[in-house]
Design a protein that fits this description.
By secondary structure, this protein is mainly α. Helix content is 80%, strand content 4%. It comes from Lentilactobacillus diolivorans.
Length: 163
């Protein structure tokens, strides 16, 4: 544990393995709660910007506060190799690929719906532009499908066969 972690957590002295595991678990839970609260604050701030009709610096700062730690965690997980899933049989591999397909499919639907709402109502309100529902929905679905295909292959790439 480095000096900054000791200072932030208020710990003095070395910790055994069980305590270190508990600290890591609590830190992960704290990060998740902070991320969710940041996302909620970002949605509220963006909603207020839509209501008032102008984009505020507060929304951009909240987005940075949410995105930068998430990018840091993803980078460190990828660098350490902890984001890989090992499977030991063909049936487990097929089951995991099916799970990934469902997860990506639901993410595509979620992404497409949220982005179509944001692009149809959010951007047109903020930019004081005329609404073009068909183009916005088509654009959101296309972006969602491209994003989903990329995420599927990325998630499939992270599955390591050990048989």
């Amino acid at each position: 544990m480095n000096l900054l972690e000791k200072w932030i957590l208020g710990l003095s002295g070395a910790r055994d393995e069980a305590q270190q595991k508990a600290i890591s678990s609590i830190g992960l839970q704290g990060y998740i709660v902070t991320y969710l609260v940041g996302c909620i604050a970002l949605i509220i701030s963006f909603g207020w910007d839509l209501y008032t009709g102008n984009l505020n610096i507060r929304t951009i700062l909240i987005a940075g506060i949410v995105i930068i730690p998430a990018m840091f965690v993803m980078y460190r997980l990828r660098k350490s190799g902890s984001d890989q899933t090992e499977v030991y049989s063909e049936t487990d591999y097929r089951r995991l690929i099916t799970h990934i397909k469902w997860q990506v499919g639901l993410s595509v639907v979620n992404f497409s719906v949220v982005m179509s709402l944001v692009m149809t109502y959010g951007y047109t309100w903020l930019l004081h532009d005329k609404e073009n529902y068909f183009f916005n929905v088509l654009d959101a679905i296309t972006c969602g499908l491209v994003w989903g295909v990329c995420m599927y292959f990325y998630a499939k790439h992270k599955v390591v066969k050990e048989y």
